């Protein structure tokens, strides 16, 4: 099976391209009126667990804008759910885990599940999405990093500091590492099942990696991401996005990952320098910059491509798209990349 548009996969391999590929983190979501129409009728996990809905939401932004890759509609928190940790998505609040993991006793009830049994609906959603995409563009599967998942499991909700998650790591490291290893084992099985179901690449979101000092990052985040890369890299390209993790780009570049995501606080030049200049980079438009007028967005995108270079590069935002971005501004971002000419 070959894809009609394989720009994204070429860029991940570092092959020469006419223009870089483009997609947006969290592209299937709240800034799209067609998404809001579905959201009004079904709650969050119903949308995730119903293959017809998840596949429809996945292809909505592709139909509207024609990005070079689709990302499956789901959430990183389906993993703790499958591990026997209750996860709720509260409207206007976000994730809520009523029984957070704070002790060895809490941890004992956490399982490494059979992912086909507990997360089979994700594999069904992948198959339904592949049919709808009709080999037009590649499909990205994803998971949270073990550290980012631990943050929610221990804190019990979103946080600016994730102080309770850090407290567990620093006062009960044995418990923290056992939890991280259980999450890692589940994630490896999960991503392998996703690849078998048809995704063309996977991305690991380490959204809260930048909360840790460089030394703590090695101990509580990076070593587990490395295990995931080791287990997956021969089966599929792996992208690692660590928000605020520019300090780890050197290790990441040697890890066997195909590409590294960077956020907007790191310049293209610095990211290329820190990652050694060869590996494919992905990013890093400030999501809030999509609130600028479309003509400014286009200029800034062309400048960004010139700074990263058109090859070994995937155009993206530096984090997820914001809900208040006008649809025409998102269009300007995608169109700017498609209109890009070297020079
Ligand atoms: O990128 C995509 O379009 C695919 C879908 C996707 C969702 N979540 C759907 C979603 C992806 C890739 C995620 C990943 C995710 N989820 C991350 C990592 C990326 C990042 O933004 O840092 C994290 C940290 C989560 C956890 C999570 N899920 C939070 C903090 C929230 C609430 C805040 C928010 O953005 O709304 C969610 C809920 C969620 N996940 C929504 C969507 C579309 C919104 C809730 C809803 O639609 O009812």
Major β-sheet annotation:
7 strands, parallel
CATH topology-level name: TIM Barrel
What percent of the residues sit in helical stretches (DSSP H or I)? 40-55%
Measured on Cα atoms, how large is the radius of gyration? 19 Å
CATH class: Alpha Beta
Q: What is the number of beta strands?
A: 9
Q: Averaged pLDDT, please? A: 97
Neighbour order of strands in the largest sheet: 1-4-5-6-7-8-9
The CATH level-2 architecture is identified as Alpha-Beta Barrel
Low-confidence stretches: none
Helix-strand string: HHHHEHEEHHHEHHHEHEHEHEHEH
Give the distinct bound molecules: coproporphyrinogen III
Tell me the count of domains. 1
Overall, the morphology is: globular
How many helical elements? 16
Distance between the termini: 35 Å
Class derived from helix and strand content: alpha/beta
Strand content: 5-15%
């Amino acid at each position: 099976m070959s894809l009609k548009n394989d720009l994204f996969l070429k860029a991940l391999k570092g092959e020469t391209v006419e223009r870089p590929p483009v997609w947006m983190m969290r592209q299937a979501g709240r800034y799209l009126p067609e998404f809001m129409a579905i959201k009004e009728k079904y709650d969050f996990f119903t949308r995730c667990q119903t293959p017809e809905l998840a596949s429809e939401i996945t292809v909505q932004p592709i139909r509207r804008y024609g990005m070079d890759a689709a990302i499956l509609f789901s959430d990183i928190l389906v993993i703790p759910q499958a591990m026997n940790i209750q996860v709720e998505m509260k409207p206007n609040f976000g994730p809520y885990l009523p029984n957070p993991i704070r002790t060895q006793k809490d941890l004992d009830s956490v399982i490494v599940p059979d992912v086909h049994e507990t997360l089979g609906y994700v594999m069904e959603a992948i198959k339904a999405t592949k049919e709808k995409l009709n080999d037009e563009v590649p499909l990205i599967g994803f998971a949270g990093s073990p550290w980012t998942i631990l943050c929610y499991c221990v804190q019990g909700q979103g946080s600016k500091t994730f102080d309770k998650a850090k407290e567990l790591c620093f006062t009960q490291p044995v418990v923290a590492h056992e939890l991280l290893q259980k999450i890692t084992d589940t994630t490896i099985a999960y991503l392998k099942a996703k690849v078998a179901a048809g995704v063309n690449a996977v991305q690991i979101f380490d959204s809260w990696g930048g909360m840790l000092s460089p030394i703590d990052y090695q101990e509580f985040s990076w070593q587990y991401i490395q295990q995931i890369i080791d287990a997956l890299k021969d089966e599929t390209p792996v992208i690692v996005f660590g928000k605020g993790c520019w300090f780890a780009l050197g290790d990441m570049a040697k890890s066997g990952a195909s590409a590294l995501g960077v956020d907007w606080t790191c310049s293209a030049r610095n990211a290329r320098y820190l990652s050694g200049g060869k590996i494919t980079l992905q990013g890093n438009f400030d999501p809030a910059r999509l609130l600028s007028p479309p003509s400014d967005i286009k200029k800034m995108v062309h400048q960004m491509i010139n700074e990263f270079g058109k090859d070994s590069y995937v155009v993206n935002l530096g984090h997820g798209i914001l809900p208040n971005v006008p649809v025409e501004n998102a269009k300007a971002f995608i169109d700017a990349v498609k209109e890009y000419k070297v020079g």
